[in-house]
Amino acid sequence: MLSRRILLFSLSLLTSILVTTACQTNSQTSDSPQSSQPGDKAAYEVVTSPNPDWVQFTPPIDCSLGEDCFTLLYVDRDPSDNAQDFACGRQTYDGHKGTDFAIPNEVAMNEGVAVIAAADGTVLRLRDAEPDRRLRTAADIAAVEEQGRECGNGLVMDHGDGWETQYCHLKQDSIVVEPGQQVTQGETLGLVGLSGKTTFPHVHITVRYQGEVIDPFVGVTDETGCNLERRPLWETPLGYEPTGILSAGFAAEDLSLDRLWRGDFTDVTLSQDIPLIYFWVHGYGILEGDVEHFRLLDPEGTVITDYEQTADQSNLNWYNGVGKRNTAQRPILPGTWRGEYELRRNGEVIVSLEREIEVQAVR
């Protein structure tokens, strides 16, 4: 049985951006459970009616949230060197000034996902010539920072009465509006990309009122921190999804987080002569003490792997999986293989999914 976890950390002291570090295990023994504190549910339920004088926004991405795109990171509401999102959770990093709406991988990016105007307004300025590439090292990050191109390709819009939005990390040469142009809410501005200071394909939106950053999940307030009365800016209320799965599937070779973000493992069939079969999930927002449960079943319904692992620390982004090698004594059978996954928090199942793949006989 194969098992691996790749962890994504916020290195705020060095870069204030997500980068990856890896650890591996081949043990079927779970780590000891440790206590964890998820986002405070009360923090995102204390909501009052929107202020009619405030601009109301829609998410700046043309997709179905929770299905083919995800609210991955929120505004950092902790004024100290620590980081905390509006619901007292961990889906942010120190100094993060916006909300990140992510897509699963570069395959989706290359197919084209529209970035749309969050509200009616006027385009003030834009940039559209930065290359798309996933930053991997501190040197990559430093180079972007030195150039002052952290936003990558993006634009700023004026919505009147002191309200502005900024959109970042758009795909190179995808912006279809011009400075001075009037746009309406929902109108296409460009495409989701990988430009600027980023490690995953997404659009980042920063909302400002009279020059100050505003958390759209909270509204205008002088208060910092979480667990406070909120008057969100979203036209239609958005839920808080601190944990979820970006993608899941099967592979016939060893994985890496870089290749998952590229979207390399999207096969719908595999050949019986593969060296191994590996069932994986790529998710966000795992908390210390969460329990992952994997089952891998062969075409005859035999449980090949039944494996649990307890997260020993919280991570913004991770992947894990189980697999079976192809050996003469225990060959990979042709037919439909099934993978089952559950993520439990405090004894409650918060994520559950199944995936299947057809392994074709070699003739």
How large, in whole angstroms, is the Cα Rg?
22 Å
Specify the helix fraction band.
under 10%
Query: Which ranges are low-confidence, i.e. pLDDT below 50, for 5 or more consecutive residues?
Result: 4-37
**Beta-strand residue percentage:** 35-45%
Order of helices and strands: EEEEHEEHEEEEEEEHEEEEEEE
Distance between the termini: 27 Å
Largest sheet: 8 strands, antiparallel
Total helical elements: 3
| Broad structural category | mainly beta
- Beta strand count: 20
Mean pLDDT over the residues? 88
Shape: globular
Produce the secondary structure layout:
Elements: E1 2-10, E2 18-25, E3 70-73, E4 99-102, H1 106-111, E5 114-116, E6 121-127, H2 138-147, E7 153-160, E8 163-170, E9 182-183, E10 188-191, E11 202-209, E12 212-214, E13 244-251, H3 257-262, E14 269-271, E15 276-286, E16 291-297, E17 303-310, E18 315-325, E19 335-345, E20 348-360
Describe this structure in words.
With 363 residues, the protein is mainly β. It has three helices and 20 strands. The chain has helices at 106-111, 138-147, 257-262; strands at residues 2-10, 18-25, 70-73, 99-102, 114-116, 121-127, 153-160, 163-170, 182-183, 188-191, 202-209, 212-214, 244-251, 269-271, 276-286, 291-297, 303-310, 315-325, 335-345, 348-360. Strands 3, 4, 6, 7, 8, 9, 11 and 12 form an eight-stranded antiparallel sheet that branches. The longest helix is centred in the middle third of the chain and has 10 residues, at 138-147. It is globular. It starts with a strand and ends with a strand. The model is unreliable at 4-37 (pLDDT under 50).
